[in-house]
Design a protein that fits this description.
The chain folds into two domains: 6-172, 3-Layer(aba) Sandwich (Glutaconate Coenzyme A-transferase), CATH 3.40.1080.10; 187-427, Glutaconate Coenzyme A-transferase (3-Layer(aba) Sandwich), CATH 3.40.1080.20. It is built from 15 helices and 25 strands. The longest helix is centred in the last third of the chain and has 12 residues, at 411-422. The chain is globular, with a radius of gyration of 22 Å. 25% of the residues lie in helices and 21% in strands. The strands form seven sheets. It has a seven-stranded parallel beta sheet with strand order 4-3-2-1-5-7-10, with helices on both faces. Strands 12-11-17-22-24-25 form a six-stranded mixed beta sheet, with helices on both faces. A three-stranded parallel beta sheet has the order 8-16-14, with no helix packed on it. The chain is an alpha/beta fold and 430 residues long.
């Protein structure tokens, strides 16, 4: 490959272009910083991001640069949340699994893809390593592909590979990948994790997220057998289960014997472990999050979190009131796919109270809050006070069940709200 400077590589971007940026813990910041230096030369360049983690604020998402760059998010990365709050960035509501179809259909035209890739192998193929998600389809649809080659990027198997002949401009970008510490589960997390783990049978296929509660679930699965992994994000938490043979993927119908994901969030140890490791397959998010793929694995278990849930089972997971802090992500995709799976189960896990002492089980969602999972899809809801099953329950019974796992200090208040809303139907349940 003929390497250029980052500033030379991004000269291929033109005013009016739409750029799709690789995410996860591998945001190509070298390219984005070089592009930002061209702000005076460019106008109306749209920059589309998916899920991502980076300690530095996105350099292009500033009020004074809005004529040059428009920051758009499929799932709000942590380094664009401030820009979202200020109105400098915006979000496109959609299921993460449908994003590739938006690119491929032309509903969201893609002109340029920014990638962060591994060194080329002996056949000239670079790997996107830990981030296929929307990067794979973005590069597939882009007219121009610009990449930073990063010696720290692992080479993974599956979709995220590209031959050097397909890359239009390339620079060096040897930046260590961002590491996401493994959260230590709190006492509350551990209680919730145990409730969920007790509902997971041997032979189940897991979709599991990031955070203290998912790690608590993982920690509670030590006596299980023949588990599988088909998930959106692969984290350090699953490594002990893989290394002990608890996750062996032996009963999966889709990629038996392989752990499947679309992106990786973890430590250098995890990234190094996955480098050229055939036990892992990284696929386009259109594949990993396709409910019709997910359902083919028996006993698919979808384990997700929420910001709040109302007494009918409506689940908000992307916003605090009107303030959007994330996105739908894969929650809907996996909840739907697991519900269709033979023996599948869907879990929403959340502490009963916020850190500020506000109940997360509420009479009605906070005004402006978005419904990520509808009341029609809600199944198991778990807090530190227990786990309830909503799927077969009418509204008044759902309210009673949810109140039973709310913090004791707010149950009387929730009961009054339920009486006001459901009337005699609720009172007769007592």
């Amino acid at each position: 490959m003929k390497y250029q400077s980052p500033e030379e590589a991004v000269r291929l971007v033109k005013s009016g272009d739409t750029i799709v940026v690789q995410g996860s813990t591998s945001i190509p910041m070298v390219l984005l910083k070089a592009l930002t230096k061209r702000a005076n030369e460019l106008r109306d360049v749209k920059i589309i991001s998916g899920f991502g983690v980076h300690p530095e604020e996105a350099p292009y998402a500033k009020e004074e640069l809005m004529d040059s760059f428009r920051a758009l998010n499929i799932f709000v990365p942590n380094n664009l949340r401030n820009a979202m709050r200020m109105g400098v960035a915006d979000t496109i509501p959609c299921f993460l699994g449908e994003v590739p179809s938006l690119f491929r259909s032309g509903l969201i035209p893609v002109d340029v893809a920014f990638l962060n890739v591994s060194e080329p192998d002996e056949e000239g193929y670079c790997s996107y390593g830990i981030s296929a998600d929307i990067a794979f389809s973005g590069a597939e649809c882009a007219k121009v592909i610009i990449a930073q080659v990063n010696k720290y990027m692992p080479h993974t198997y599956g979709d995220p590979v590209i031959h050097i002949s397909k890359i239009d401009a390339v620079c060096r970008g040897d930046e260590p990948l961002i590491e996401v510490p493994t959260p230590i589960p709190s006492e509350i997390d551990t209680k919730i994790g145990n409730f969920i783990a007790n509902e997971i049978p041997d032979g189940a296929t897991l979709q599991i997220g990031v955070g203290g509660i998912p790690n608590a679930v993982i920690n509670a699965l030590g006596s299980h057998q023949h588990l599988g992994l088909h998930t959106e994000a692969i984290t350090d938490g699953v490594l002990p289960l893989i290394q002990k043979g608890i996750i062996d993927n032996s009963l999966k119908k889709i990629y038996p014997g392989k752990s499947v994901g679309s992106l990786v969030l973890g430590s250098k140890h995890l990234y190094d472990y996955m480098d050229k490791n055939p036990e892992f397959i990284i696929r386009d998010v259109a594949y990993t999050n396709d409910p019709q793929i997910i359902r083919q694995n028996p006993k698919a278990m979808a384990i997700n979190s929420a910001i709040e849930i109302d007494l009918t089972g409506q689940i908000c997971a992307d916003s605090v009131g009107e303030t959007i802090i994330s996105g739908v992500g894969g929650q809907h995709d996996f909840m739907y796919g697991a519900a269709l799976s033979e023996g599948g189960k869907c879990f929403i896990a959340l502490p009963s109270m916020t850190n500020k002492g506000k109940s997360k089980i509420v009479p009605t969602l906070t005004p402006g809050a978005g419904v990520v999972t509808t009341r029609f899809q809600a199944q198991y809801i778990a807090t530190e006070h227990g786990i309830v099953f909503l799927r077969n329950k009418p509204l008044a019974e759902r309210a009673k069940a949810l109140i039973s796992i709310a913090d004791p200090s707010v149950r009387e208040e929730l009961e009054r709200a339920a009486v006001k809303r459901f009337g005699i139907g609720f009172l007769r349940l007592k």
